[in-house]
Design brief:
This protein is α+β, with helices and mostly antiparallel strands. It is built from seven helices and 13 strands. It has helices at residues 9-21, 27-31, 45-58, 147-159, 173-181, 195-203, 256-265; strands at residues 35-42, 71-78, 88-96, 101-110, 113-125, 128-136, 161-162, 166-169, 190-193, 224-226, 229-232, 238-241, 243-246. Strand 4 and strand 5 form a beta hairpin. The protein is globular and about 65 Å long. The N and C termini lie far apart (49 Å).
Length: 266
Amino acid sequence: MLSRFWIARAQVFDRLNEMSTQGHVPRGVLDEGRIFDLGTFEISDDLHGRAFSTVHGLRNHVGQPFETHPWVYTMNVISPGSDNGKGTTVVGCVTPSTETSVTVTKFAALDGGFVSTESFDFMHSTDGFFARKLASVMSPTDPKSGMTPTCYPLAIAILNTRGCEIERQGAPKRQNKSRARKGKPERPEHYRVNTNEYLVALRAPSTSSSGDTELGSRASPLPHLRRAHERVLPSGNRIWVQSALVNVRREGDLAFVDRRMGYTKV
C-alpha cells in the first residue's frame, strides 16, 4: 500500500541515481538533465478529464521534448480531501518509440524507496490521444491507480503549450564536488516547471477573450488556455496553431518543444 508522503527534491535526484543503477531510468536522462520537476498539485477527476481532453485535441501534433530520447517527470501529488496536505511523490519515465508513441512507467514513493507501480502505452494519432495499460501492481480499487494517465498528459500538454514557464536549473557544482569526494553520485541538472499557471488556465472557461491590459487589473480577462486548432488561411492552406496560455507573464514564449528544436538547429 502506498505511503501518504512525499520526499524532498534532492532525495528524488538521489533516488533517480539508484533507479538508473538498477536499470529503471536510462543513464542519459540524468547525464543530460532530461528531467522535469512539475512541483506539487492536487489531482482530481476534473483535472484528469481536462488534461485528457487537451491532449486529445493535440492529436498527432504533440511533440516529445527530446524527440525519441527518454525523459522523466517528477511531482508531488495530493489527493482531494487528503489530511494535513500530505500526498505521494511520483516519478514517470517516458520512453518514446516514435515521436507519436511512448511508454510511460510510473514509480511511486514508498517508505523504502521508489517502486514501479504501473506501465502504459500512449499513442498520439490523427484521431486523438489513446492510452493502454500494460501492467499494474496496484489494486484496481486504489484511488491512486489513475494518476499515471493524468500525470503524463499534464506534463506533455505543458511542454507543447506556448507561454508555459519552464526554467533550466543547473547542477549544484559546489555540492557535487563535495559529493564526488565522498563517493556519492552527482545531482543532475533539471527543468523546473511552473505548473500553477497552467492549471489556473486549464480550469478557466475556454471561451474567455484575450486582451492587452495587464493581468491583475480590473479590466484584464482571466488567464485561460487557448486550445490548439487548425486554421484555414485565405489562400485555402491549412496550418496548425498550438495551444497557448493567454494573459500570463510569458504569453509570447514558444512551447518548450519548439524552443529546444530551435536550439538544436543552431
